[in-house]
Every structure is written in C-alpha cells, then in structure tokens.
Give the backbone structure.
Amino acid sequence: MNFSDSLKNISLIGVGDVFAAGISAIFWIFLSSMILPEEYGEINYLISIATITSSLALIGTQNTLTVFIAKNKEIISTLFLISFLCSVVGIIVLFLIFNRIDIGLLLMGLVIFTHGISSNLGKKNFKKYTTYSLVQRSLMVIFSLFAYYYVGVDGIIYGIALSYFLYVKIFINEIKKPFWDLHLLKYNKNFVSTNYLLMLTNAIMTQVDKILIVPILGLAILGNYSLALQIIAILSIVPSIIFKFILPYSATNTQNQGLRKKSILLSCFLAGIGIFILPQIIPIFFEKYTETIQIIQIMSFVIIPVTINVFYHAKFLALENGKIPLFTGIISSTIMVTGMIILGTLYGITGVAITYVLAYSSGVVFSVYMAKKLHID
C-alpha cells in the first residue's frame, strides 16, 4: 500500500479518534473544573478498578480479535462468549467487594466496547469505526452530565458505562454465530494467551499507577495526576491512531513505507507543546490543580517512546508473536510499580511523573533490541 492510500485510511481513523478524544477531553476538563481534585481522583480510581477487572475478563483481547477477524478465523465467537461469562463473574466480585453496581456496569460496558471496536478494525471498516467512536463519546458526555446534575458525582460512572453499550449489537451478533469450539481456542492458545498476558501488563501500566497513588499520596494528588494524564492522552492521539491503522494491514503483510519517520517527527513536535506551551496555559484554567503544572513537562516526553513502540508492537503481533510485547509490558510494568512506590514515596508527584516516563522508555528500548536481534526492520 502506498503512502497516499495509507494516509487516506489513517485519516478515517484519525477523524474518529481526534474528535472522540476532543469530546472526551472537553468533558473531563469541564468536569475537573466543576468538582474538587479529591472527587476527580476518586472517579478515576474507580474507573481504574473497573478497567483492570475488564482486562481480566477479556480473554479475547482487542489485538487478538483484530488480527483474527482480519484473517477471518472462526474462533471469534468462542472468544466473545468466554469474555462475556468472565465479565459476569467480575461483576459479582466487584459488587461483593465494593457494594457498588456502577463499576460492574462499567466493566461489562468496557468488554462490549473492546469487542465492538475490534470487529470494526479487523474488518477494516474504518468509516464505521469512526461513526461508532463519535457517537459513543457523545453519549458518554450526555449520559454522564445528565446523571451528574440529577444524581451527583456518584452518577458519572453510570453515564460512562451506559455509553459503551452502543456496541452491544455487534457483541450479540458475534456470540450468536454457531462457531463455539474450544478446540480452536486450544489450537490458538499460544497467541491468545500471550496477548492476554500482554493486555494485563498494559492494564497494569495504564491503571495501577492510579491505584498505588491513593494510599501513598491521596486522592487529591491522584486528581492532579489524572488531569495530566488526560492532557497526555490528547497529545498521544497520533500513535493511537497509527497503531489501530497498521495492525490489520500488518496482519495481512501490507507494508507502510515512510510512515514511521513522519510519525516520530510529529511526536517530537507534540512533546514540545507539552514541555514549553502547556505549563503557561494550565494555570489559567485550572487554579485548583497546581501539581498538574509541576509534572506536565516531565510527562510530555513519554509521547516519543510510545510512538516508536507502536511500529514494533504491530510487527510483532502481525507475526502472531505476542511474547516480545509481553516481556516489554512486564519490564515496563515492573518499573511502573516499583517506581511509583519508591520514587513516589521519596519525591511525591514529581517522582510519579519520572516513573511514568521511565516505564514507557524502558519498553521501547527492549522492543528495539529484540527487533534488531530478530532482524526485523
């Protein structure tokens, strides 16, 4: 595939992701301006718990499903069914521990959401992916704000959870297909299991920091850190778009020449915005989130290694080799956990920000090393 065709299809994904991220960012930023940092931190804490639990339930991960759907393998409905059953168990466990229905509902919504976007991406139906993304984020804002005004802070998670059920039709259609065969799962167990473990390490990378911050530094610091993560998520939208685009094409051995260099250059520019411009803007709009200003410059560096790792990650997965990304995730997760505990305790929120960058940077160093060792360009 030539660069112009790649750019056209990336643009389809980009429209969905950029506008969806924009809707989400405006929502979270608006929400942070209305509630206290402690409340903002608590919401993110509960979302992290639901996200990690959904990762445990997702036997068929997004990357696994995208590759298998692109290759038209019949194992898809089996993976959907197993994930659904595991989700039901997860809902029961969360209710027994926290006595809350909202995080269980969010767990199920996240599972349905993951299977839905995997289906759209695996079938290379990027237009449908864009439409669903925009509608889901719009519903998230509408439902969450409605619940907030009529129920209070506790209603926000209900609104977020309900928006993910937009994908329920796709989920049900796959479960209804008569291809439930555990022998297929056994045949593909290596790729499925390595991607499952990889997803769990990614969940640790992206969520455990929030859970660890609460006992070490408190909900208020988590609120500031979560706002910084929202800003980094906006700046990191480019690598997210590119990965979703190149994975199904890599799975079918379609090359994308010239894309990597341009993407890395763009990531350097975006990191520069976070380092030099955002610290001047944040104090104007977020007076209560003073610690966010302190760490955004450090955390912005992470955009570069994340972008670089996207290309290696896609190549490894396209070869159905999930072991290298798995070990990459284990290394990064180990640094994330130990750094949050040690540096977070010693240096507070600055130590947390440094740990965040070190964790992702170590992952890309390992990916580059393994790619050279296996002679993968």
User: Anything to note?
Assistant: The chain has a mean pLDDT of 85. The chain has one domain: 3-373. The longest helix spans residues 3-34.
